[in-house]
Amino acid sequence: MQIVVEPMAQNYVATFFDADIGICGPTAEEAVDNVKALIVDIFEDLERDENENRLGPGPETQLKILREFIARRP
């Protein structure tokens, strides 16, 4: 999983471009930590919505991409 970190104003933005997920933080390290947590949250939300048959084309694609990088432990 490649996360790109870029300075922006007084913060840093960490982005996982493949799944179009990004978030900022006051340091590069915090931005990366924040994007990791956001990726997990979005993955869990998308899985729940998929189980409830509530995903549109965009979220379906995002979930497919995330599943390439994330797997639940048995």
Descriptive labels:
74 residues; alpha+beta; three-stranded antiparallel sheet
Detailed description of the structure:
- The protein is of the alpha+beta class.
- The chain has one domain.
- Helix content is 47%, strand content 22%.
- The chain has two helices and three strands, in the order βββαα.
- The protein has a three-stranded antiparallel beta sheet with strand order 1-2-3.
- Strand 1 and strand 2 form a beta hairpin.
- Helix 1 packs across helix 2.
How would you briefly describe this protein structure?
This protein is α+β, with helices and mostly antiparallel strands.
SSE pattern: EEEHH
- Please report the distance between the alpha carbons of the first and last residues: 22 Å
Structural class: alpha+beta
Q: Give the number of DSSP strands.
A: 3
Oligomer: single chain
Low-confidence spans: pLDDT under 50, at least 5 residues? none
Helix content: 40-55%
Number of domains: 1
Rg is 13 Å
Secondary-structure map:
Blueprint: E1 4-8, E2 11-16, E3 21-25, H1 28-51, H2 57-67
Antiparallel strand pairs: 1-2, 2-3
